[in-house]
Design brief:
The protein is mainly alpha-helical. The chain is 48% helix and 11% strand. Strands 1-2-3 form a 3-stranded parallel sheet, covered by helices on one side. A 3-stranded antiparallel sheet has the order 4-5-8. The chain has a two-stranded antiparallel ribbon with strand order 6-7. Strand 1, helix 1 and strand 2 form a beta-alpha-beta unit. Helix 15 crosses helix 17 and helix 16 crosses helix 18. The longest helix is centred in the C-terminal third of the chain and has 24 residues. The chain starts with a strand and ends with a helix. It binds one RNA strand through helix 4, strand 7, helix 5, strand 12 and helix 10.
RNA sequence: GCUCCCUUCGUCUAGCGGUAAGGACACUGGCCUCUCACGCCGGUAACAGGGGUUCGAUCCCCCUAGGGAGCGCCA
């Protein structure tokens, strides 16, 4: 049997974290078994579906690298097929017309709730009834078996069993003739020869009735795997308000797709003590039956750690391209300063996201507006004046603007003044970078460039003199 | 309310009848060091509770509690 999995989002919003993981699991399973992964857009809800959402989902999949072998298929283009199946079910007696009014159903539900019963359709029209009027509206219901129970072996949950008397006769066609979800999934999964249905566990309760329909149609029941949901940082369900951000938002926030994928695959799944997985390793090692049953909480801290790991591990040339983009977003022309590859090389161990990397690299490309307040307070004080003046002198005299001579010049100044190198380097760092943290002082100066360095040192000296003058007059 | 599902450090997880309950993130002590990071060494921290079964339960069974999902002419 060739493995065929699918991802079937409804285009009513973005591709969010939960959907992305379900897609990843399905994709991995197909890739692992040399099968196919198909994408299907479940857009039968005309009210809520939008093309913008379809595009957002496709964009998210592309960014993550979850390529599909077939599709995207749109359910809206398959209405004829659904109508055909519904007719077959009618012909074989597995479905019937129901003329019950919404009012009647509403009352029924209230009564059942009051009686502490599970609300369900009572089969009023099951035996066949006369239409209240010749042109009375009706829905079509699936005739669920009354006896026995449905069992299936879920690849992550194990055996799940539910009694048929818990199930009622669900609507498969609305009064306007359009098919409902439970019918369309079943028909599509069958037509698309899906062998393994991997989806969120919010579908567990639908599965038994879907199995009953599949059997009524005389079709093959696929293997199911219901993956647990992902909770927000607060342990509550993900919502628009916290965490359920679109996958694309992570790209904007400076995450690498490899990091997000790695994070997602470890949510509910593990392989020994391994934390880092390349795509190839995931494909080789992942197995849907090793997935946990319990929901898991999304933890940005760990994602950040992984992201930093991938930033460190990725070729700086590649990082440079991303950095260019994020610098651009900050209004910086990346060609106006040092080579991006060099900057990425010295910064890639210092940033958890590409956005952060752009932020801490800004000073390479333009003079900062003002010194970081705390850093200036600590380092740009009277005691730093002489060292900075001497450093300026030494640097101005340098012929070769390279890390080694620069560092030699600094140590010479420090020695001459009988200071530790830090007493010289820190004020200089604040002068040139605007803050007390930066890559090594030598490469920092080199990349900023001689002219800019001298200019900024002068500015820092002005700042110190002004500060000294103020404290004297006070 | 009813049905189904879930429950190991704060978080992600390992465990599959006998372990000092392992790893990772975070937190934290130290080393390295021109800063920040990186890296390295160390630490704190968990089997929801109660009954069984068993020589022995994190692991098997039952109950309780807590959490989640479903119960639509949404998907």
């Amino acid at each position: 049997m060739t493995v065929r999995t699918r991802f079937a989002p409804s285009p009513t919003g973005y591709l969010h974290i939960g959907g992305a993981r379900t897609a990843l699991f399905s994709w991995l399973y197909a890739r692992k078994h040399g099968g196919q992964f198909v994408l299907r857009i479940e857009d039968t809800d005309l009210e809520r579906s939008s093309e913008a959402s379809v595009n957002a989902i496709l964009e998210g999949m592309t960014w993550l690298g979850l390529d599909y072998d077939e599709g995207p298929f749109y359910q809206t283009s398959r209405f004829e097929r659904y109508a055909e199946v519904i007719q077959q079910l009618m012909d074989s007696g597995h479905a019937y017309k129901c003329y019950c009014s919404k009012e009647r159903l509403e009352k029924l539900r209230e009564k059942q709730m009051a009686n502490r019963e599970k609300p369900r359709y009572d089969g009023h029209c099951s035996a066949g009834v006369e239409p209240p009027s010749p042109d009375a509206p009706f829905v079509i219901r699936f005739r669920n078996p009354k006896e026995g129970h449905v069992e299936f072996d879920d690849l992550v949950r194990g055996r799940i069993s539910i009694s048929n008397d818990e199930l009622d006769d669900l609507i498969i066609a609305r009064s306007d003739g359009s098919p409902t979800y439970n019918l369309t999934v079943v028909v599509d999964d069958s037509d698309m020869r899906i062998s393994h249905v991997i989806r969120g566990d919010d579908h567990i309760n639908n599965t038994p009735r879907q199995i009953n329909m599949i059997r009524a149609m005389g079709l093959q029941v696929p293997v199911y795997a219901h993956t647990p949901m992902i909770l927000g940082e607060d342990g509550k369900r993900l919502s628009k308000r916290h965490g359920a951000v679109s996958v694309i938002q992570y790209r904007e926030d400076g995450y690498l797709p490899e990091a997000l994928l790695n994070y997602l695959v470890r949510l509910g799944w593990s392989h020994e003590d391994q934390e880092i997985f390349s795509i190839d390793e995931m494909i080789e090692l992942f197995d849907i039956s090793d997935v946990n049953r319990a929901a898991s909480v999304f933890n940005t801290e760990k994602l950040l750690w992984l992201n930093q790991h991938y930033i460190k591990a990725t070729d700086p040339k590649h990082i440079a391209r991303h950095l260019s983009h994020h610098l651009g977003l900050r209004g910086i022309d990346p060609t106006s300063g040092p080579d991006l590859h060099a900057v990425a090389t010295v910064q890639h161990e210092r940033a958890k996201t590409l956005v952060e990397m752009a932020e801490i690299s800004e000073f390479f490309y333009r003079d900062f507006d003002e010194f970081d307040h705390k850093s200036a307070k600590k380092h740009l004080k009277a005691a730093a004046q002489e060292p900075l003046e001497k450093v300026r002198e030494a640097l101005a005299a340098l012929e070769a603007w390279e890390p080694e001579p620069i560092y030699a010049a600094l140590t010479a100044v420090a020695e001459a003044l009988d200071l530790k190198i830090g007493k010289v380097a820190q004020p200089l760092r604040v002068a040139v970078a605007g803050r007390a943290a930066s890559p090594g002082i030598d490469v920092t100066l080199q990349l900023v460039g001689k002219e800019a360095c001298l200019r900024r040192i002068d500015r820092a000296l002005d700042y110190i003199r002004q500060r000294v003058a103020q404290s004297e007059s006070a």
